[in-house]
Amino acid sequence: MSKERVCIIGSGNWGSAVGKIVAENVLKNSDIFEREVRQWVFEEEFNGEKLTDVINRERENPKYLPGIKFTDNIKAMPSLVEASRGASVLIFVLPHQFVRGVCNEMKDHIAPNAKAISLIKGLEIKPEGVTLFSEEISRQLGINVAALSGANIADEVALERFCETTIGSRSNEDGELFFKLFNTSYFHVNVIRDYVGVELCGALKNVVAVGAGISDGLGYGSNTKAAIIRLGLMEMRKFGQTFFGTVEDTTFFESCGVADLITTCSGGRNRKVAEAFAKTGKPIDVLERQMLNGQKLQGTLTAQEVHQFLEARQMTKDFPLFDTVYRIIYENAPLESIVRDI
Ligand code: NAD
Ligand code: 13P
């Protein structure tokens, strides 16, 4: 049987941390996986050089994950077609605003037996409906797609600090394969079937993190933030159960659920930028550029997408925390409404 050829689509902060894990694990499972892991890098200049050249020479991504070395079996490639050619395992890990078009470009080049996993924390929300990225990728490529999400701040994972993560997979066989690709002594994977719940948690917690950041910016303290986390968790569950009947309560007790909410609302980028928004009043896109060095926020965009979706159903009032976060960021609602209106 031929070995699995792995391609990582994305090379930001999390894409790089995951690249390190995956490249190490294919070496440990050389009976299953080909040695080389190809990584598609959205090409850009870094200190006057191509970022892909720097990554391949330095064995490090100094723009998005400085100071962390990769094993020599990861190859950064600027062409999506070349990176995905013949790939049988696809790992999607890019900010959700950039997913459109990617599948179309690679669909004629992947292996016929390919399977994929989405690490994207975001939803494809259009006024007419919500689509999970795993489902959208599955539809466009005609393959099975699992989801991975958890309390996983990339910089900490890259430093090999212990954490857990959740993989949601409909197929047991794919679940076992992805376990081998991602699990390490410091990155504990639990595989469950509720891929919908895994992905919904990963997307919606970013909206809650923006609320937590606003509260921090106002100096409201730990009790208020805990209340925002609790109410956020309830709205996440309500959203899942209202629009995706299959979401299971137990999923919220996995790393992708309550654990990710806690970590994102303390150490995440969405929280940090929202705190600065509350303190300075500067626009979010300006703060994103100033504070994140090319990394991307997902929570404010997801708040807007969720709002459009709920508004189309006249249901914004049923999700007061999501609604309040949206109104503060996009409609100049007073910052204090983060406690007054939820
Ligand atoms: P990031 O926030 O570091 O974003 C930067 C990436 O976006 C770079 O690879 C850049 O090349 C790419 N990019 C910029 N413009 C682009 C374009 N026009 N087209 C395609 N790519 C473009 O990315 P990340 O941290 O790797 O996040 C990827 C996903 O993983 C997100 O959904 C995020 O929520 C999720 N995630 C992130 C973390 C984390 O701690 N960083 C942890 C878990 C999950
Ligand atoms: P941020 O994008 O807010 O940094 O969250 C990272 C994350 O998803 C941690 O699990």
Task: Write a structural description.
This protein is an alpha/beta fold and 342 residues long. It has helices spanning 13-28, 51-58, 80-84, 102-106, 133-141, 154-158, 172-182, 195-217, 222-243, 255-267, 269-280, 284-292, 299-312, 320-331, 337-340, and strands at 4-9, 33-40, 45-46, 49-50, 74-77, 89-92, 115-118, 123-126, 129-132, 145-149, 163-168, 187-192. The strands form three sheets. The protein has an eight-stranded mixed beta sheet, with helices on both faces. Strands 3-4 form a two-stranded antiparallel sheet. β6, α4 and β7 form a beta-alpha-beta unit. α10 (255-267) runs parallel beside α11 (269-280) and α13 packs across α14. It is globular. The termini are far apart. 50% of the residues are buried. The model has no long low-confidence stretch (mean pLDDT 96). Residues 121, 151-153, 206, 209, 260, 263-264, 268-270, 298 line the site of 1,3-dihydroxyacetonephosphate.
Brief summary:
The chain is of the alpha/beta class.
Q: How does the SSE layout of this entry go?
A:
Layout: E1 4-9, H1 13-28, E2 33-40, E3 45-46, E4 49-50, H2 51-58, E5 74-77, H3 80-84, E6 89-92, H4 102-106, E7 115-118, E8 123-126, E9 129-132, H5 133-141, E10 145-149, H6 154-158, E11 163-168, H7 172-182, E12 187-192, H8 195-217, H9 222-243, H10 255-267, H11 269-280, H12 284-292, H13 299-312, H14 320-331, H15 337-340
Parallel strand pairs: 1-2, 1-6, 2-5, 6-7, 7-10, 11-12
Antiparallel strand pairs: 3-4, 8-9, 10-11
Keywords: NAD, Oxidoreductase
Family: Belongs to the NAD-dependent glycerol-3-phosphate dehydrogenase family.
Organism: Mucor flavus
